[in-house]
Design a protein that fits this description.
single chain; alpha/beta; Rossmann fold; seven-stranded mixed beta sheet; 18% strand; globular; SAM-dependent_MTases_sf; signal; S-AdoMet-dep_MeTrfase_Alr7345
Length: 252
Amino acid sequence: MRLRILAAFAAALSLLTACGGQGSDEGAVSAALADPARPEADKADDELRKPANVLSFIGVEPGMTLFEMEAGAGYYTELFSKLVGPDGEVVMQNPQAFDTFLGDAVPERVDGRLGNVRVSKTNFDNLDAENGAADIVTWILGPHELYYEPNGAGSLGSVEATYAEIFRILKPGGVFVVLDHAAATGSPASTGGTTHRIDPAIVKQLATDAGLIFAGESDVLRNPDDNYATGVFDPSVRRKTDRFLFKFKKPE
């Protein structure tokens, strides 16, 4: 009997580790997704982006400080804002070079709507946060951008310095969650500037080299039938790419 109990405990612990630890409250996630104030355009994206699964994996809780790297137009910002609540804060970061692409999307998302969101415009290697300020740092569909130079504007940040910044702004025990389009195993990092993909192993190596500990992954957005040689904006793969989702933890 004792052996069976120990075996069951070990299996449960293994499952918890594989999922990256404790996730967000399912009821809170469902409420955030169903919020009537949420834009209809966001809701239309839910089937392909699977936010309920992603948010549960991230583990956002009320009162947290969440630093959202490369927030784009704010699809996830909206949800993070609801989940951290009035006592929490979300930093919505995009490089200044993205202004032309984003237009008025950021002020339309935030101004007069999301009072716990602070907008930040810096490159990835100069994050606008104090040491140990963030419970969570997210980078959704973004690490490949380090190898992309939009409109000839130059690099969006030094690779090593960027991961050092992520480590710096995380609290001890805080987590870094990263999601991106996968390149084929063994692909050079330069695919980030061409097909807008990156080999997951490169991200894992850079994060661990910076001092973070790999804490789990989710296969909810994996697609082994993806054509890795095709750019992510090609109609044949757009919004259907193979996407990896990793979680790392800063040592306590």
